Amino acid sequence: MHLSRRILVTGALSLCALPLVAACGGGTTSLAGSDSGSGSGSGSGSGKGGSIVIGTANYSENEILGNLYAEVLKQAGLKVTVKANLGSREIIIPALQHGDIDLLPEYQGSLLLYFDQNATQSSSDEVQTALAAKLPSGLKILPPTTAEDADVFAVTKQTAEKYGLSSLSDLAAHNGQLVFGGPAEDKTRQVGLAGLKSVYGVDFKGFKALDADGPLTKGALKNGDIDVANLFSTDADIATNNWVVLSDPKHLIPAQHIIPLIRADKADDQVSAALAKLNSALTTADLTKLDSQVDTDHQDPETVAHTWAKAHGLAG
Questions:
Q1: What is the CATH number of the domain that holds 209?
Q2: pLDDT tens digits for 178-203?
Q3: Taking the mean position of all CA atoms in its chain, how far away is CA 140?
Q4: 59: domain range?
């Protein structure tokens, strides 16, 4: 059984020092014993026939992306290990910096706000440039894919019609009337209540801390327990349920194209060229379908990634 997309481990786990993550909480968060795929876990330079250790966060889309990275790297002749479901950025980015893993699938805007909570860049090019300037020494980002999975704020069709909602700008006319739901982190995040207040002047009647684009949030939206939900743009349930995604005319939500975050000493020409093969091949529509195959059809992320990569000539 795979975890819902973008369910993040926070709280006590985020305070744990590596490599002692396993002692700090339940679940698969240790860097040991969480491998999938094949190959060596060596942290030495990649080189021809070398090795790369890929880490993923603890939600299915990121695990799919990690396995797509593994497919193109294996085709390029590298030995690859995938350490899946390691936790939130508070866990996996320190793991990357410490050399426990070499590579992560990341999202432009979220990663920039992780390193600079005051960042205001929104376009893909602006975010990529700002992010490159904010990265700690020893880390590097590679060019983004066409595929993007961005935060969205959605309401049911009935709520949209009742309150006349089509844009985030429309929410302020109903301050104190609507309930917002999403992950607990939304209470303080810029792409959450803080930004909706500062950018759009929105005050909600209440906030319900649920999960990140998971069954709790989507169930609460369906049942009317919340009025506005933080979801993700590649979620096929949005179209299935005819939910209305509110437009973002003031560009609160930054670009979220998928990017490789890698240790600089691993980002040689062989690795960079292999990962670049995904840049135009993987589209948002593809990623949406892959997510649905795992989250709705309950297929294995590694199998889904291999099938897609092989169909696109990116795996043997």
A1: 3.40.190.120
A2: 999 999 989 988 899 999 999 999 99
A3: 18
A4: 11-148+258-311
